[in-house]
Amino acid sequence: MSNLFLNSGNAEGLVAPPAVMGFADKNKMNLINEYLAKPEIKRLFPNDLVFRWSAKPTKDIETGKFTNQYELYALRMKRGGDGPSLEGDRVINATAT
């Protein structure tokens, strides 16, 4: 059984937006955080990349009900700052969802 389900492609494209690295059950989030904090894993990613979990679980496409899975985002931090760069020149598409 997998701990993290990667955001993989299908005939229509990615399952989720490109910033979403994957999905995990709530009870697996701490384990994944521990893996991502290991020096040998951190070296695989750029220094300015941080991982954050979605605040709410995903919704089932068919039923519209919340699932037990959360999205793992990869965010590039703004150089010299303490937050991700989310200025207008970086936003590709914004919606109310």
Explain how this protein is built:
- There is one protein chain.
- This protein has 97 residues and is α+β, with helices and mostly antiparallel strands.
- It has one domain (5-76).
- The protein is 13% helix and 26% strand.
- The protein is built from two helices and six strands.
- It has helices at residues 29-37, 39-42, and strands spanning 5-6, 9-10, 13-14, 20-25, 49-53, 69-76.
- The N and C termini lie far apart (30 Å).
Beta strand count: 6
Low-confidence stretches at least 5 residues in length (pLDDT < 50)? Answer: none
Number of domains: 1
Fraction in helix? 10-25%
Give the helix/strand class. alpha+beta
The number of distinct helices, counting runs of at least 4 residues, comes to 2
Strand content: 25-35%
Q: How would you describe the oligomerization state of the chains in this entry?
A: single chain
Distance from first to last alpha carbon: 30 Å
Query: Can you write the helix and strand succession as a string?
Result: EEEEHHEE
Cα gyration radius (Å) = 15 Å
* Average predicted confidence as pLDDT: 83
Shape: globular
Tell me about the largest β-sheet.
4 strands, antiparallel
Largest sheet: spatial strand order: 1-4-6-5
